[in-house]
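Anyone? Bumping this.
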Amino acid sequence: MAYISMGEAHRRITEYLNRFSDAVFSQDGLSLKQLFAVSSDSPTLLSLADALNVFQDANRVIKQSDNYSQFGEIIVPLFRSLQNYRLGHLVDSYQAFEKCANAFIQDFRNWESAWALEALYVIAYEIRVLAERADRELASIGKTPEKLKGAGSFLMKVFGILAGKGQKRVGALYVTCQLFKIYFKLGTVHLCRSVIRSIETARIFDFEEFPVRDKVTYMYYTGRLEVFNENFSAADHKLSYALTHCNPHSEANIRMILKYLIPVKLSVGILPKNSLLEKYNLVEYSNVVQALKRGDLRLLRHALQEHEDGFLRSGVYLVLEKLELQVYQRLVKKIYIIQKQKDPSKAHQIKLEVIVKALKWLEMDMDVDEVECIMSILIYKNLVKGYFAHKSKVVVLSKQDPFPKLNGQNLEALSWSAGHAAYSYDYGLIHAS
Amino acid sequence: MNQGGSADTITTLDPNLLEVADSNQGSASSYYTPSGSEAVPWGMHRADNCSTENGILSSSSYHHNQLPEPPSRNIQDGLNVTSVSSTSSLGATNVPQEYNGFASYPNTNPYGYSNTGYAGYYNGYQHQSNQSYPPPVGAYQSTDIWKLYEWRLHSSTAAATSLQYQQHYKQWADYYSQTEVSCAPGTEKISVSTSNPGGPLPGVTTGYSASFSQPPAPFIPSWRPETSSSQLPSVQPGAVISGVHDGYWKHGAPVFQNHNASLQQPQFQKHMDSNPTYEGFQDQQKTACPQGSNIQYPAAHQVPQSYQSSLPTVPQTVTPLDSRRVSKLQIPTNPRIASNLAFGLPKTDKDSSTTSTAAKPAYISVSLPKPNDKVLSHDAADSILKPGVFPKSLRGYVERALTRCKDDTQMAACQDVMKEVITKATADGTLYTRDWDTEPLFPLPNVDVANKDGLPVSNSCFFIVEEQKKPNEEKFSGGKLEKDYSLNSLKFSLSEQRNTNKNSPRPVKRQRFAEGPDAADNGDASSDSDKEQSLTAYYSGAIALANSPEERKRRENRSKRFEKMVVAGLLKILIGMRLLSRGPVRKLRNAIYALHSAPDPATVRPEEVLEKALVMVQNSQKNYLYKCDQLKSIRQDLTVQHIRNELTVKVYETHARLAIEVGDLPEYNQCQSQLTTLYAEGIKGCHMEFSAYNLLCVILHSNNNRDLLSAMSRLSVATRKDEAVKHALAVRAAVTSGNYVLFFRLYKTAPNLNTLLMDLYVEKMRYTAVRSMSRSYRPTVPVSYIAQVLGFINVLPRSETGDEKDTDGLEECVEWLKAHGACLIADNTGEMQLDSKNSASSLYMPEPEDAVAHGDASLAVNDFFTRTSS
């Protein structure tokens, strides 16, 4: 840290204070928001933090002028937070920032118009980021990380302030998204429910009114929740919405969305092109897709095993595992096609032992009973039309459409390509059948 | 002052009493008033502690103990003498300095207490007792002076005050050397400091924070001397302890220190919040200083706080005792012990029984008029004079009197007068009978005169107490002091032991306290005040009854009861600290008991007995309910003794297995969660087996994918390779894919008790399987096949030969299918077939006749009892 003279330090502090009070008095949310971005590492704030460390008595400067001192409750802790952040004391920095944020929302509540929403966004973001870092610091010294939880309850408070009538309500979704991020990180996803309920059922919110950015984030997180609940059509809808409205240039975000959308699409029988997987570096799915195309059970199991940790962590493991039935269906269909080529008249009767043999080629050691069970499940789940004759151990396929397409596949495929014009060139979809 | 002169031996006690009472009042005036009984003993106790510290090793701990005081002291001084703007920094920097200063301290002790060792102390103790009745007080006195002396040595930072203290020191030295001393000189000094109204608030807070670290330290040294003292009066527990001293020492120290550390912060904050009481507190502190008792103040202050917050955990009935115990959990300071001492002393001693009663009213009366000095203290006065504690009319009287005052000084003087009035009323028992509404107001005191006379605030406090003491003094001057005394000393040690008992580790509570002290004290202030009121009522009743023979008898009984509790409690704490490795209990069987209070040590079994008990349970032929009870009692004994080792794991594992065997899932879940933490601590056991159980439980019981995912992702690579875990994972795969064939194969090959957990899912699995079959098979499915695939055959362990097995299984399968609404037909060979087409629409899940709502038939109550009572 370069040496700063007292005069210079004083100058920087007063400059900051001037900017702060000017922004508030002119109701300039954009310039105000920069002043709160503690973790942004912006040069102005860094030099201010240095100045604060040199010039210890900043509080006196604040008290000197009425213009400043009326924001003392915000600025004093904010200065302390900046100072501590600069010194790497993240827990202290968080605590001071929380005080500052609390003081700010008091004022924010009293401001009639929503001019300071931008600044509030920054505060909501900062408090989460600082809490995450503070928790990391706490964990490293062996204490219980609890700051993120605290940030969560603070944001809940902010949500309460925004979730009313008036201009401020458009900010509610941003705060909701920050809350989602916290809850997903903490693993307390069940807490999302109350927020979602108030967003989706409350009449005061017209979802389309919210900024696109927030809508995409919101849809992404709620889509993920639906994946957890294996509610695939809802998940598909939400994640597709997120994908269509996501900024095409933010590839990282697209990748995050696709990471969940692809398993969902797979489970309704829509497979992505390999080029898409490669473009967004989602190659962990390519073997799964291959297995689905080929009816290769071994490949699927192998792919699942290979990426087990990653799939478990992102929460798609169980979804992918359920694709097994589709792989069986593909396998039976292949046998059917081959039989049809040989002798179309007997093609619809598939002997159980043929399937067992095919599985043996795949080094899947399954006996007749087990395969019989799987066939029974396939028929039961309507992946195969037909019946099973126990006495003769034969699967009798329906003559019409023996391998029906998955539920709602066509319809979703349509909405998929229509709403997704921007990506259709590389996300060309092929159907499993 | 005049009265001060007339008091004799007992006077020594007064400053202590006064100081403690004051401090309590100041800090917690809003709710704390009547628990003065607690505070009174406090000072005394402290005394005894200090002296023991001097006597024995405690030099290092003693520094700790002292360390925080000087700074706080200095700050106070700084407030009084100079206007220190940045008091906080002063406090902070002072700490280390003072600390160094103290390092040399024990050798410089001018009173010769230090090097004589404990025995010496004890003798001195005895000796003193001849002169003045309450022995601990004597000791206390000496330490006080001695501390004053120390101040003088170390308070070079505050030169102005140090002078003053030196003076004090001399006075007190005199005071000490001759027991019959009027407290006049001391009181003069009081006026000096009290007349300085409060300094800047921040300064005070630093004083507090510095003093927070104090309580644990004094506590530690206190143990050793005390326990050794207990050897002298040949009380049995004493003997037990002695062997264990060192260990205890080691154990005790870290535990409590840690604890205190965690407390520090919240309490500090609490002070910050309560500004009004604060001011009052500050004043109190000042009044207390000149008497030397200020040293104790920080500690005194602290305890009421913790006391307050800990109260919620205290059962209503035994308020005084229990509250003390609980608070000890939080801050096990010696003062607590003292409180017991004062409590225990009078009660155990027939002759001195009146002391307690006399002392208590004294305390109350002192605390009553305390709101002084400040306009602010009106609040305090209000809270003190809350309804129920003192008559409402009295409150009105005080208010009337105070509103006449024109300025602060006048008000202070006025309060002094009032204090006297009320004290007198309390003393002659008219406090509750007098009609305060019509009571004439005293003439407004002339402030100037009062000041000149050096008759300020706490001066009056002084003789108030003295006045109270008079009756006792008569009693004791009456004769066999010597004998009384020895008796006292016996009780004294006893009561200390009782303390230890009260202090016994209740980890849960302590933890809870550390987590949410704020919540705790906020929430229960009201109930506290209730208790206080009842306490006050009790004391006032006691005053009236003090001399009646029945009352004496009652006290005797009570004292006997106390003694019993003391012995029991002592054993318990020692066992709790894992010092007493062999308890008196040798029997293997023990029933679980509800722990509403500290467990009775007489029933706690030591580790090796528990080990045998476990074997006994394992080999027992009795039913589950009996075993469950036994295991629970073993678990309880383990918990009480803080045993967390492989035996603990074994016990929980045994219990968990038994619970699985009979399908007692709640019990199993308890054990599982304990085991999870135990394994996490690195204690060896059947980790794999139980991760498999855990996994199965998650799979089969919670329908929550996220739980399942997290449970799976938590498994390490090594764990995944374990047979049982592999099996559990395979079961999961079978369940999620609905593969019933695989499921029932795994069911048959399950290791350990996995089968039993899978049992809980069998019904569901069979049902979906039959549904799926009836949908996919045409035209029929042989029942024999179903029975084979769905595990009806080859599952029942009790069937003997192959044929019987099959027919049994078949019959069971037929029964099951019928119960679930399947259509069965016989084909031409007579074999039963499932008519799949008809069954598809007729299948249903039967009502809880053999399956209960949650799909877990094994939890059906009747079934449970029939199976377990075998």
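Late reply, but here is one note on the structure posted above: Chain B has a mean pLDDT of 55.
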